[in-house]
Amino acid sequence: FQQFSDTGSRKEHVKITSEPKPGFLERLSETSGGMLIGLAAFLLAFYLLFTNEGRALRTAKSLDEGLSLVVPLDSIHSISQQNEGRLVHLAGALSTSKPLFDPSYGLSIQAVKLKRSVEMYQWVEYEDSKEYEENGEIKKETKYSYNTEWKSEVVNSRNFDREIGHKNPSAMAVESFTAVSPNVQVGSFILSKGLVDKIDDFKQLSLSHLEDPHADVTRGGDYFYHSDNPRRPEVGDLRVSFFYAGLSGDDPYLGTADKVTVIARQRGDQLVPYHTKSGDVLEILYPGDLSVEEVFQKEHESNTMKTWALRAAGWLSMFVGISLMTRIFYTLVDWFPVVRDLVNVGLKAFALCVASSLSLLTISVGWLFYRPLWALLLALLSIVPIAVARSRVPPKKQQ
């Protein structure tokens, strides 16, 4: 069953599908499949939590090692052989040998990276579904709506529920790309590919000082439009914008060259990765002029944030895994609404407590070889969620 309506530029219709309510064996089969997925998520959580602790401690030790060995350079314009193979710290303006060009639009800039971003005006499908039970059947009501938007990727309209009237082109006539300068320096030192990759603070390039490159291209704001009327684009029209990262020369419109701070190993006139005794690699670049202490403080903060993010991901994976593996108990009592709701709450509480305890225990095992005392304290802390859960269980009535 479908209903169609047109609300201005946004078109929408509703589709209702129905299917018989699944039987007990069918739901049990689906639950069994979910249990396998839950087991995989459960095992993945152990691996993620355990390896994350070793990685975090190894990274912290490598940063401490680097801080104790780093040598600040007196000048970035002279290369001292005494620092060959050592971890060095320097700060200065970026420089490149040649500007980056986009001849199709008559654009050039002295920068480390130049990115052309192409968007096409296309139909986009949105869907909003809800399920309900009626006459012993499971019915699904889905509202499909269509709107025209600028998108950087081609939207495949063949997957739309209703392609008629919402057909998109299969490709863009102009492609996006990113150009990278082959030779990037700070003073007399050439940056490695890994350091150049870290220069990714892209800013949109103003096109106000440029002319329209072709008769069929119109400049509007900071975009070049392949459109007869940029104010009222049609499906298939293109707009092109440009972004740059690492300004490497003085520009009358953009200002002076960007400054960066680098910590890496000196190898001749090159700055390359430094391998620490802990097994990590130090190859650090930050925008601006930072001291050695400021750089390593930022690296420690980044390591802490990554560690906590992976801990949260590991706990969530374990919680989801336990929930899926215990879902079978919910399925067994699905026919009794009151019992089903109570069991659902109990299973969620069980998954929460067990996931918290096992996560803390896994983290403590990861610390066992590095910080035994902290590992013991965490192991003791892992008992708390289970103890709290048991304390809330009412004692048996005396007979």
UniProtKB/TrEMBL annotation:
Pfam families: TMEM43 (PF07787)
CC annotations in GO: endoplasmic reticulum membrane; nuclear inner membrane
Bilayer topology term: Multi-pass membrane protein
Assigned protein family: Belongs to the TMEM43 family.
Cell cycle listed as a keyword: no
Domain of life assignment: Eukaryota
One GO BP annotation of this record: lipid metabolic process
InterPro entries, alphabetized: TMEM43_fam
Chief location: membrane
Annotated transmembrane regions: 32-50, 308-329, 374-393
Subcellular location, record wording: Endomembrane system; Endoplasmic reticulum membrane; Nucleus envelope
Key words, A-Z: Endoplasmic reticulum, Membrane, Nucleus, Transmembrane, Transmembrane helix
Stated name of the protein: TMM43 protein
